[in-house]
Amino acid sequence: MSAADFYTRWADLYDPIARRIPGIAGLRKRTAEALKLELGDVVVEMGCGTGANLAYLREEVGPEGTVIGVDFSAGVLERAREHVEREGWGNVHLVCGDATQPPLQDADAVVATFVVGMFSDPERAVEGWCEFVGSGGGIALLNATQSRRAYGPLVNVPFRAFVYASTPGRHELDDPTALLDRRVETAHATVERRCERTVHTDSALGLVRLTAGRVL
Ligand SMILES: C[S@@+](CC[C@H](N)C(=O)[O-])C[C@H]1O[C@@H](n2cnc3c(N)ncnc32)[C@H](O)[C@@H]1O
Q: Does residue 27 have its Cβ closer than 6 Å to ligand 1?
């Protein structure tokens, strides 16, 4: 099953998890704030899933700004569309497409949460996003990886089980968590290399990291 079909199949289960898992709302808000958007800006969310970040992004750009969510899975986009219609957000748009080759012209900022770990070449994808927003544009990544804190071995056991259960094509992978860690590490390092005024935080017992900055 492709990753897009996997997320379509699990969209109804994923949506409440993405919105209600303890602490997630604060992380999403902090990620949107880290972009340091201005009212009226255009922000693109790559791999927007069921749209759990859209409200926070919309808050940052205001009703005169624009939020665009891109995802390649029809099922999650359908859930996102239901939320947008229910809220009556006329300035939030959803696009079906490949986040590694965004089908868009221009934006002030790009955000991707829990997405880059799915890319075979995360460095190239993040490089592409930096080119897409251009110098001065904002980039923010939020991702889960194994914790490097002293108590990491304890919290990493359930984390690895969660990653295994939630990885499309897991049966073909030797170690889905190690692969996720490598991809996330690469993506965040690319933001650090390509950006200035970067901020980094790690939270949720060291399992979740945020890196954001402005493209040089
Ligand atoms: C773990 S979910 C995260 C969804 C959302 N960002 C969130 O924080 O809840 C990963 C999402 O990325 C999407 N995705 C993965 N690779 C993609 C790609 N190359 N192009 C577009 N969407 C992609 C999947 O369809 C899925 O909706």
A: no
